[in-house]
Amino acid sequence: MKLLAADRPIANLMRGREIGSNLVLSADVCVVGSGPGGAIAAARLAAAGARVILLEEGGSFTRKADFHMQEAEAYPKLYQDHGNRATDDLSITILQGRGVGGGTLVNWTTCFRTPEATLALWRERHGLSDFTAERFGPHWDEVEKRLNVHVVDAAEVNDNNAVLMEGAKKLGIGTELLRRNVVSCLQTGACGMGCPTNAKRGMALTYLPDAAERGARVYADCRAVRLVLDARKERVTAVEAEVLDPATDRPTGRRVTVSAARFVVAGGAINSPALLLRSGLPDPHGRVGKRTFLHPVVATIALFDRRIDPYYGAPQSVASHAFIERPGRTGFFLEVPPLHPMLASLALSGFGAAHREGMKLLSRTNAVIALLRDGFLPDDEGGTVSLREGGKRLSIRYPLGETHAEAMREAMKVSARIQLAAGAREVRTLHKDPVVVRGERDLRFIDERPFGPNLLGVFTAHQMGGCAAGADPKASVVDGNLRHHHLANLWVFDGSVFPTSLGVNPQLSILGIVAASAERMIATG
Amino acid sequence: MESRRGFLRKGLLGTALLALGGGAFLAFRRTLRAAKPRAALSVLSPDEYAIFAAVAARIVAVDGDSPATDAVDVAGRADDAMAQWPDSVQVEFRRLLRLFENALTGAVTRTGYETFTASRERRQDERLAAWAGSRVAVFRSGYQAMKRLACACYYAAPESWPATGYPGPPELPFGEIE
Ligand SMILES: Cc1cc2nc3c(=O)[nH]c(=O)nc-3n(C[C@H](O)[C@H](O)[C@H](O)COP(=O)(O)OP(=O)(O)OC[C@H]3O[C@@H](n4cnc5c(N)ncnc54)[C@H](O)[C@@H]3O)c2cc1C
Ligand code: SF4
Prior knowledge:
Chain A is of the alpha/beta class and 525 residues long. Chain A contains 13 helices and 23 strands. Residues 109, 182, 185-191, 195, 197, 199-200, 314 of chain A line the site of iron/sulfur cluster (SF4).
């Protein structure tokens, strides 16, 4: 059996260290960012005959040279802010990918289409009248084929994920086997550190080479600093980017300027709104950076008498959406994360002997995560991205209110019950002073623990919003075609356009919705 | 607008110094340089290196099963990691370390009148705990910043893995396949 797909180089790829002088380039379309949104847009536009230039601030990485399944190497290289991204008060740890391929370099390969309930809410509340499964369906069909999206075999469920499946079953809580975008996956568990076998069908192996074969040119290590406007502030005329030295990630002093007829911003949630803010684009209603959603994640940690080895095997293979619809309250869904030593050490509460004790039990530890479907309640505005230090740095704020606290407490109780039902000896929360749950009677302590920034560990790996799509320019940044409300030749094609969170893992939603929108962009000539 | 980790300027420093009033002499107690850099430092000063080494030792709290934080040079690894950070974040983190070390902070948090590096282990743990659970949100953020860096630098080191039961990355069932 052929175990490995060959490295498939992206033709026309230029890295920062190869750029020895200032470059002035021109294209039909300039795309900023190479995650799912930027990659599929580049592929579609190039296939339609457009001359595409794509700028990516992260480096370009390959299985052979860069993916060694080592956390110490992976986080600084493949994540935003070298793995240190967080809200301003450090209360929410933000895992977000960076590099040619964006988040797909490091994501855990779970694939969901956008749920109908989410599309319906966007149609009703945000005026996105043609956001329908009928419209996006054919694009999802195509993407799923291209990325080999398929349901995992039950035999591929590792012991870590089996805790969720078996515990939930005993309690009568529904779960499902997940779909993954992989080919001949060797179940290393290393998805978050970059796939060492090329099994993961991320953008760097699929839509980016496709785009390049149709003539698109990809510039790695090039950070778009600002979009330049014409005198009347009606159109974007160019993108100015600074070249980064891949060794230090600092500017080399060289610049790349791309002029084009059309521009696509696809830097992902958080970075896309930041680029728009830095560029001083028209934003009369102050909507850029607002409605940032994170699927805030809380976890419960279970200790078993048997080995779980939570670092091996397909990282995510089981989920439960049994608690997604909670009328008047925030819904949540349950999944299972891989636990490697470094990530586990950041997640576990406390310090000193208690923390150490937890780390020593890693091989017998399972975690269940609950991801909150934020943005669905009418007054849930999410967080805000803004600039500071003259635009050099980002500010990310995300206030957690009582509705989040209620959902988090409920989610922790549910996941603790599931872990106990699966045979856990005890379950711990990630409160500053963890609640230790050995039976039903202990769950009430979860309600009694103080709630506030840095009193409970909260994470996110799904950033959405900040350039919300909507029919009303007073309440959104882009229209239903993902075109900027005030600039005729600018589109935003990434997860930042979602007007709420999704309630499922985002990559497939981004791919399908952007593919359909790119088709419209092409049709408008 | 409060900036990310900019809490130090407006928050931690402000709160601590205001609360301290007349105790300024405590601020000048010297750092005990128990840990010495193994190689030239890029970001931290020798004092800051010693402070972070002392903080990391209490946060990670190794026992007999695995190498000490100094043995894997957690502070040196932190210095390497910090070299990639933006200048302003480096400045803030160094300021945080010096504030945490400051004997005045011990006085404010009622965890002794010594610098952190000169305090006994029990006192050191009390000061960490005081910050972790402080009612002042910026102290909690400061604690998080130190905890995360210390844990990340220690548990990224393969030497730390055996005691966690993590056998390391799996062997791939092939050599270098083209
Ligand atoms: C650890 C982890 C696990 C995940 N697991 C899953 C999963 O199992 N399933 C799932 O569906 N989703 C998962 N996700 C989330 C998913 O990967 C993201 O939602 C998705 O990649 C977002 O796509 P995007 O196009 O919006 O932006 P991104 O993927 O974030 O891509 C944006 C790119 O633009 C670049 N960029 C930003 N600003 C600039 C600039 N100014 N100039 C040039 N380039 C710029 C960035 O470096 C980045 O590479 C996971 C994410 C993480 C971090
Ligand atoms: S688990 Fe599979 S897809 Fe993920 S890194 Fe390992 S081989 Fe690649």
